[in-house]
Each structure stands twice: as C-alpha cells, then as structure tokens.
C-alpha cells in the first residue's frame, strides 16, 4: 500500500492516542481529517495522579508507573465506549515515546505497541512536545505553519520556529528551572499545597498590583533563552523577610506571576520579530494561566500578530494531542517496527518531516 492509499485508509478508521509521560494517563480516539484535524476527535479521557503524589510534594516515578498500569486499560475501554467503537475499529495506535519518565513511558509504549501488533495495525511513537505544539490544531480555527511556538510547562520553557510539521528549530530554551517548575517550587517555598503552580496562580488574583516587583530574568540582554532560578531566589528572600500574612503571600504571588508572564511575552515578541512571523502558538500546562492568556491577547492586538491557544483541557498532558500528532505521521506513511523504544530525553529538532 503506497502512502496515498495508506492515508485514505486512516481517514476511514480512528487512531488511538495514549499519553503516559509523567503523572497523567490520557487516552483519546481521533479520526484523521486533513481538512479539519480537530473535527475528528471522537472521545478523550484523562486520569490525573495529583492525589497520589500530594503527600510527597511531587511526582514519585515508580508510583506514577504503577498507576499508569492500573488505569490505562480501563481508560482505553472507557474511550472506546464513549465513541461507540471496539478495538477492531482502530486504524492505528499512537503513544508517547518521550521525553518523560522512563517507567511511565514504557507503560504506554508497551500497551500501545502490543495492541497494534495484536490488531495488525500500524503504531507510532510520538514526541510529547510535538503533541503539545500541535494541540491548537484540535481547535476550529487552527494555525498553519510557519509560526512560532512557545512550549511552556513544568518541564519546558522553549521557543520553537515551526516551518512545517516536523521541521522545527529551537530558538530558545530554559537554562535551569522551566516556568511551570518555578511556579511549583515557589508555591512550595511559601507553604502552598500541591500542586503548587495552579494554587499560586489563583492566589495571585487576590494580590495587589505593584506591592512587590521582581526582575524579568535575561530580558536585559539579547537572546531567547530562559532562566527562572534567580527569580525563585528573589521570591524566597522577599517571603522570608516579610510578615508572611495572607495578603502578603497573595501580593508576592502576584509579583512573581507578573514577572514570569512579562518575561515570556518579551521573549515571544523577540522570537516573532527574529523569524518575521505573524502567528504565535502557546502550548503546555502554563498555557492555561489566565494572566498569560490575557496579557498575550493584549500584546497581539497591539502588535498585530495572532496568538493561538489550545482549549484548557488540552493545555495539560492529554491523549488527544498524541492521537493528532500520531495520525498526521501515520498518514504520511511513518510507523514503528515491532520493538518497544522510549526516549526519556529526545531532541525535538531530530524529528523527521511529516
């Protein structure tokens, strides 16, 4: 079967997407429709391990892996039931192959590859960050390459030039803490409950503007890299030297959030100008931050560029983005052999074009 016939066959059958890179088990079913990628989403289910890891103040890799083992197959059955399908209806399987926690990745990769082998359908290992990058394509008005993408989450703060799907150039990356990681660690320093990032963002809404102002790291020099460890230290010192009252905590949270958001926007503007681009895609968990969304929308209106966000459900890890990225690559004729391989570290720039 040539690639054109292969693509047509995939348009008739849904793709199963499996996400198990960290502490969320995501499953989705998507029927590939090149004219409207997001329109083919048939079902998606998600289980979060937040309660499991709360007592430890962070993700415990071995516990994450074991919980994926317990939850993955029930979620696949749930998604199939939601879509009114059986496994025999599947045209292919996509699973996250990296980057992420090696044990967690192996759970999804092993299950996905075994299911594909048993059904005699193709399987594809998907780059987790490519899934995030393509998540806005699940919306009704998807962006078309070329564009600049800001991938911002607990593990990544990265600016990427996207010339086409699979043609990526990293413009800037984090040198230490990612933005989401800085949110979580700062929240923990101030005694906020796990998961700290969303809690800190909600608290910041109660803070007073201008009560605390922190630096905008690495914006006083050329370049597109990020560094948030120094900002985290500034906040710690401000908190230790304060009266630690509830309002003070909210004021510090707002000052910290404003510093993160301003830094991200400054770097996004620089990246758009450097690439001569007029479209900006925001992806990853921090893309759900309300202040970031509002400030970026205002910047876009002022500067004349378009900004694209995935819906809130698809900012955090999910199976839908993996199903979409996998469907695109399967439709181009790419697939894995019968081996099970995962990549805890995986350079986005090494991916082949689709």
From TrEMBL:
Domain of life: Bacteria
Location relative to the cell: Cytoplasm
Classification via CDD domains: ASKHA_NBD_TsaD_bac
Cofactor(s) demanded: Fe(2+)
Record: residues binding substrate: 151-155, 184, 197, 289
Molecular functions per Gene Ontology: tRNA N(6)-L-threonylcarbamoyladenine synthase activity
Reaction catalysis annotation: L-threonylcarbamoyladenylate + adenosine(37) in tRNA = N(6)-L-threonylcarbamoyladenosine(37) in tRNA + AMP + H(+)
Residues binding Fe cation, per UniProt: 128, 132, 317
Pfam families: TsaD
Residue ranges of every copy of the Gcp-like domain listed in the record: 41-323
Function: Required for the formation of a threonylcarbamoyl group on adenosine at position 37 (t(6)A37) in tRNAs that read codons beginning with adenine. Is involved in the transfer of the threonylcarbamoyl moiety of threonylcarbamoyl-AMP (TC-AMP) to the N6 group of A37, together with TsaE and TsaB. TsaD likely plays a direct catalytic role in this reaction.
Protein name, per record: tRNA N6-adenosine threonylcarbamoyltransferase
Gene that encodes the chain: tsaD
């Amino acid at each position: 079967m040539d690639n054109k016939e292969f693509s047509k066959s995939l348009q008739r059958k849904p793709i199963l997407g499996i996400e198990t890179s960290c502490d969320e088990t995501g499953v989705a079913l998507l029927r590939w429709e090149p004219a409207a990628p997001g329109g083919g989403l048939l079902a998606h289910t998600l289980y979060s391990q937040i309660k499991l890891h709360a007592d430890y103040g962070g993700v415990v890799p071995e516990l994450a892996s074991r919980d994926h083992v317990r939850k993955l197959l029930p979620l696949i059955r749930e998604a199939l039931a939601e879509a009114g399908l059986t496994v025999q209806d599947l045209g292919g399987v996509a699973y996250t192959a990296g980057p992420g926690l090696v044990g967690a990745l192996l759970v999804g990769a092993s299950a996905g590859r075994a299911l594909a082998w048993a059904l005699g359908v193709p399987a594809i290992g998907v780059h987790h960050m490519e899934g995030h990058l393509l998540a806005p394509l699940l919306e009704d008005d998807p962006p078309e390459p070329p564009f600049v993408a800001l991938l911002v989450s607990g593990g990544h703060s990265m600016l990427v030039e996207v010339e086409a799907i699979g043609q990526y150039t990293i413009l800037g990356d984090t040198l230490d803490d990612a933005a989401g990681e800085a949110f979580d660690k700062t929240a923990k320093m101030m005694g906020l409950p796990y998961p700290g990032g969303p809690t800190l963002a909600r608290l910041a809404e109660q803070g007073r503007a201008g009560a605390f102002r922190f630096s905008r790291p690495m914006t006083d020099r050329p370049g597109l890299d990020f560094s948030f460890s120094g900002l985290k230290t500034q906040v710690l010192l401000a908190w230790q030297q304060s009266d630690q009252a509830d309002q003070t905590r909210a004021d510090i949270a707002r000052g910290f959030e404003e510093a993160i958001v301003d830094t991200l926007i400054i770097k996004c503007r620089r990246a758009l100008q450097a690439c001569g681009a007029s479209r900006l895609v925001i992806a990853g968990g921090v893309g759900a931050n309300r202040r970031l969304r509002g400030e970026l929308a205002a910047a876009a209106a002022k500067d004349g560029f378009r900004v694209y966000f995935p819906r809130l459900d698809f900012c955090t890890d999910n199976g839908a983005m993996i199903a979409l990225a996998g469907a695109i690559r399967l439709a181009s004729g790419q697939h894995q052999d019968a081996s099970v391989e995962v990549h805890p570290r995986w350079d986005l720039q090494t991916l082949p074009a689709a």
